[in-house]
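Purpose: get a first structural picture of the assembly so the mutagenesis plan has something to point at.
Setup: two entries, given in the order below. No constraints added.
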Amino acid sequence: MAHSFTGKTAFVSGAASGIGRAIAEELGSRGMQVVVADIDLAGAEEVAAGIAGASAVKLDVREEASWVEALDLAEFRHGPLAVMICNAGVAGPTLPIAETSFEAWQWIRSINLDGAFLGLKHGARRILAAGSPGHIVATASMSVFFTPARMGTYTACKAGVVGICDAMRDELADRSIGVSVLMPGPVRTALLEVNAERAPSGVDIGPQGDGQTGALREGLDPAVVGRQVADALGTDRFWLFTHPELEHRIDTRFAAMKQAFHPD
Amino acid sequence: MGVHPFKDRTAFVTGGASGIGRAIAREFGSRGLQVVVADIDLAGAEAVAAEIPGASAVALDVRAEDNWAAALDLAEARHGPLAVLVSNAGVAGPTMPLVDTGLKAWEWTRSINLDGAFIGLTQGARRIIAAGRPGHIVATASMSVFEMQPRMGTYVACKAGVVALADALRHELGDHPIGVSVLLPGPVQTRLIEANAGRAPAGLGIGAKEAGQADRLRDGLDPAEVGRQVADALGTDRFWLFTHPELEHRIDTRTAELKRALHRG
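Result (structure tokens, whole complex):
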């Protein structure tokens, strides 16, 4: 079955590894022209080399100028943007928030939240300018329903990403642009391993490499997530859940809120 | 009504010069807490503090970490160790679609509504832990996190982040006698929309004032009721503070949508 965006340009941030890489590979296998964007250009080039018709671009999601330059290059090489996947992110400080410095907060917030704002906004603007149907996707996290220990800053940023997507699906509803938000549970990525390398020097981001790393190592194959995202493009699916077995997180949250409405 | 568990202890309320913050400050004062009315509008904070026995005012720009440290130092020097922190200061932010929202308008709102909450919750928690006595922390979020309001995407994204920060803090402080609550107001009679343009830096495009939203707030709940609700929650284990029972359907609708997505096909 031909994909609805076959031959069209898809831009994937954070695509040198993990979920972003899997999405890029899957979109490539469905015949899209994939732009593999990452702050690690060498890594992006390696991924792009493995995908027919793909190219790599360097992107620092924190910088608006970097987004503009990367999108200009993407459209110059491959034609008008049709699909934007805002996936780049870091695990951030693995500390209680009361022990997290403002500098550490700013680091993760600038990547995971400001970066998503910039990418979704500029992506949507390009797709609107192209005048053809499109789709934008942002990677959030299942953690927004329960806030795992020592992941408070990460969860706060991802909750903000859900809010941005929720707004954009309403704003773009009449303009042939689909919006989806990806809510992964544990996926087999190097999210926690690369965290320390990416942190600015001198900023305490807490102990790295404990139980959470193990949970990711035993997590879902990112290729499954890539297929799920590719399948969602062109549909009206907003919430993309990767882990049906985590439904109880939603039930628990819902029950707590209902209880607050009806005390006793 | 018995003696308030935090009677005579120090409570710091941001955004205390108006709206929900002022109502919380007044209610705390009437329950015998020593209230610090913090606001970027010092004259406004002083006017509120003047009406509350034992209260004092302090200038606070919630975006600046050193400003928080100075304001909390002053509060504790005047009134004693911090027991209650209410992180309430916020702006409506740009009332426009996100695709039209400039980075500077995003940053303005995010630095006040989310960074400001981060600094306040973390510094407040550290002070209350250091005091070694029971305490309580409250953050003002919004009922809009469960149902998007048109042209309020920036605001809602920040408030969704505030909910998560409060959620993290309540888990982390589980071993301390410190309660955490998140306030989820529906429409409350405040000047959130009217005051918005006056607060924005000159030249920042924040969109047209939404007459509909201002009207909804004008017809909204009396802030005094929200103040009483927050004062009642201190010292309890109530995390979710919903002000509008009639908006329960938003949670039902959101959850039903999530469940449908989980069970698709």
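The first strand of chain B starts at residue 10 and ends at 14.
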